[in-house]
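My current task is to audit a protein record that another person submitted. I need someone to confirm that the token line plausibly describes how this chain folds. Take the sequence as given and treat only the tokens as open to question. This is what I was given:
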Amino acid sequence: ALNFVLNRSFTDVVLRQGLGANSIPVNIWTWLLLHTSGWSEALLKLPSLVCAIVSLVIIPRLVKRLWGNNVATVTAALLAVSPGVIFYSRITRPYAPTMLFCTVSLLLTLSWMREGKRRDILISAVSGSLAIYFHLYAAIPVCAPLMVAAFYCLKGRTAGAESQAAANPPRVRDLLIAVCIFAVLDGLLVVLPNVLNPWWKRVQGIDHATFETARTVMTLLAGSRSLMLGVVATILVIAGLALMIKNSRSTGIAFSLPFLI
């Protein structure tokens, strides 16, 4: 991002991105610092640090709405000592903001499925759009639960009421508004820059999962490269997802689907 914003106009930074500098919000922040206070390590890292700290407050509160005080307390404790959260809060990368906005979007989508409050799905759409704006791959954990929520909404089902009138205009209308928010925000913030500068066409990678992929996933779950800790963390995650599906099929599937994708 530092090299990318040099000798570029603000408009160019907003509308374009490059290989290795493919998070436009990070590029914008870097450009603004360059043309105001100047670059410093503390200021460059500030958005990541703020998002990590805010996640310790917001995410447990949303978890409490879904699963109660005990689960919220455990969530707060795990976030506070999470190696991933701690590491990414200390670097100028989009992962801490992406984690915050993506998790908020996911949890609010689950809350909307359960309680049907319009505010939840609308804030989820805005937060999900920002997550995708920071990192394109956030589309998976943001959109997958929304698709599940749309399926159960159209079938007239919710997490807490397995039978509900299929024609529920307010809920369907809320869903349509959320989809429109996604279309407008992501169309302007994500699709347009990628159309103007399709940097991802120049990226070379592996188009299939490998053993190293599994190792990487286990490392992220455990916060350690220890194979034993990775296996234990993976087993606990699978057991937790299975328990969620058992307690509420719709909520469990919505939460689990991003992991499977």
Remarks:
- The CA atoms of residues 131 and 137 lie 9 Å apart.
- The radius of gyration is 19 Å.
- Residues 157-170 have pLDDT under 50 and may be disordered.
